[in-house]
Amino acid sequence: MNLFEVKIYRMGNGAIQTKFLDPKTGKRKRKRFSTLKEAKDYKKRIEDRVNSKGVNAFNDLRVSQAMKDYIESFPTTQVRSRKNHFKGFIDKFGIHRVNEVTTSDLQGWMEEVKEENNLSTRTMNHVRVQFNGFFKYLKDEKYIVQNPITDVHFKRYDTPRRKRVILSIEEVREIISNAKKFSPDILYPYLASVAHTGARKSEIVKLDKKDIDFNTGLIHLRDTKNSHERFVRISPMLGEILENQMGCSLEGPLITNELNERIHRSQLARLMTKFKAFFPIANKNWGSHSLRHSFAYNFLKKGGKMYQLQAILGHRSIDVTVDLYGQLQAQDIECPSPYEYDKETNNE
Q1: Which of 256, 267, 281 is nearest to 177 (CA)?
Q2: Does the model's pTM come out above 0.85?
Q3: Over the stretch 35-59, which tens digit does the pLDDT of each residue have?
Q4: How far apart are the first and last CA of the chain?
């Protein structure tokens, strides 16, 4: 096997020329330089590229076109599941050749995304997984020699970006009761739905009336964070609230603003700010996601199982549920030490 080499020649007019054969096409490639140093630097770059990338070192396939081919080949791929990150990836790397994207490039881009959007390392690990299939496809098709995203790493565990607020059962009931007084047609059904289902804010805001099925007693959450639809049981208390909210109509969004349009998240946020100012919970700056955390905590405290909680919350993996709420469950066990005296039997 002949080793790849870039040869350097001095031409009659004094210019320096390099020459080599493209290892994939076999075509001769020439380039001229005014100095020997420039030619030697070029020679080193090209030889290093071929040694690291093999026959695809001069492949002109761009990331944007490769992504289009990948999606057409695998239409069920989750590469577009996080739309903002997908768009950011294409904006950043779309015009690059597929063999030019390095681990360092990807790590740098992800660090920027993490910093600019105040994201946790847990979320960035999910983003890495989002694009792993694409680069695996490029490797399987022999467009690249190695998958560059494999060596992009974020630490597995991360301290919360903000303090997690947990509300007691009594506090949650108080919030729902106050919401009924403050905003009976918007905040009341919204907060009750989040509190009783543990769903995310976006999942409740996107609900339509047709997603509420009183015959089966289920809420159909369609547009979820991980694109996996799920059904959640309607509790009796929530059922009464939703029946009043539905009225006689079975069409349109479930939570609407004063114009009877689906409420926007910014409108909801402003309403929540006013509500919390009128009805503060002592020393707790809670939000919609606090109700989700509180659902998980109180569910486990009442004896619910971790795998059940995973299904209700819609986590893709049980590991996510355990990472988030395993410690909450452990800290709630009364006196876990096996070495305490048994007061009833007085045995050691």
Answers
A1: 281
A2: no
A3: 899 899 889 888 887 777 666 666 6
A4: 77
